[in-house]
Design a protein that fits this description.
It is a single chain. With 314 residues, the chain is mainly β. The protein has one domain: TolB, C-terminal domain (Neuraminidase, 6 Propeller), CATH 2.120.10.30. The protein contains one helix and 24 strands.
Length: 314
């Protein structure tokens, strides 16, 4: 899906202002890692074990793109969006890619960036909707749509305790800033300056104490690299986890692991891409999928379902 195209158009039209919500890794045992990547048939969702084994393509959509995957708290479902520059819908499938179903939405609505609430019963998502652009919630079957706040931002994610919503907000257009609001809506708190050029993938730590995000995601500072940083939900204690410079090597945040001991991310090194993990302090860097032309994007680490025979592979 060409996210850049529709977001740029909305920004130019003045529709992307300061907005709401966010996506969380919920506590649990480490399961599979999901992401999307480009293929000859468009963007598709993949999953892989944390040790890099058993890479699977989960979607095979035709004539459109699948993107922005998010795991349910129990690791049994994946929510994502399917669409193109003209239309987009939220979809849900089982962890193995089976039982894919598109959720209904009003005519003209453009629904993207779904994430589960901590109880797994609802989805939070961004909609460019005739009724009102903003962050919404709905049941897993698409019913009971409720507007949380408006105007629209990006990547709404609920905190593990279900009280706060983190999201990427704007002030008339890019670059964006990390923001939070109450899960019920209301005024947004800006945690970072817009000069940080925060990226569209962010995540709560499983204990809810910190938010991870991408700094200089769109290279608003042209000669600088993209790096991973974390911050407390009140905007204090900013910490840079990676320290790349010179633009040739970049780190793009994905998510925390369900046990909180790892951060998974995309490493870009001189035009090659890899799926990597490291400790939240930046130590113990390990390749999951080594550098290649295969680029994992919008990475989310799911919990291991109860009864699964897969190891954590730590």
């Amino acid at each position: 899906m060409s996210r850049c195209s529709y977001l740029a158009a909305l920004a130019a039209a003045g529709l992307l202002l300061a907005a709401p919500p966010a996506l969380a890794t919920f506590p649990g045992h480490n399961g599979r890692i999901a992401f999307y990547s480009a293929t000859s048939e468009g963007n598709q969702i993949f999953s892989v074990r944390p040790n890099g084994k058993d890479l699977r393509q989960l979607t095979h959509v035709v004539g459109t793109d699948a993107g922005e995957p998010d795991w349910s708290p129990d690791g049994r479902l994946i929510a994502f969006d399917i669409g193109n520059d003209e239309t987009a819908s939220v979809a849900i499938m089982n962890a193995d890619g089976s039982n894919l179903r598109l959720l209904p939405h009003p005519d003209g609505a453009f629904d993207v960036d779904p994430s589960f609430t901590p109880d797994g019963r609802r989805l939070i998502f961004t909609s460019f909707d005739p009724v009102g652009d903003g962050n919404w919630s709905m049941n897993l079957d698409g019913s009971d749509r409720r507007l949380i706040n408006s105007p629209a931002g990006e990547d709404p994610n609920a905190s593990p305790n279900g009280r706060l919503l983190a999201f990427l907000g704007f002030a008339g257009g890019p670059p964006g800033a990390l923001m939070t609001s109450a899960i019920t809506g209301g005024p947004a708190s800006q945690l970072t300056p817009f000069s940080f050029d925060v990226g569209s993938k962010l995540d709560w730590s499983p204990d809810g104490s910190r938010l991870g995000f991408i700094h200089n995601a769109n290279f608003a500072s042209p000669g600088d690299s993209a790096n991973i940083a974390t911050i407390r939900a009140d905007g204090t204690d900013l910490r840079f986890v990676t320290h790349y410079t010179g633009r040739d090597v970049n780190a793009f945040f994905g998510s925390y692991s369900p046990d909180g001991r790892w951060i998974v991310f995309r490493l870009e090194d001189h035009g090659r891409f890899g799926l990597y993990k490291m400790r939240p302090d930046g130590s113990h860097l390990k390749a999951i999928l080594p550098l290649s032309s295969f680029a994992p994007r919008f990475i989310d680490w799911g919990a291991r379902p109860a009864g699964s025979d897969e190891d954590d592979d730590d």
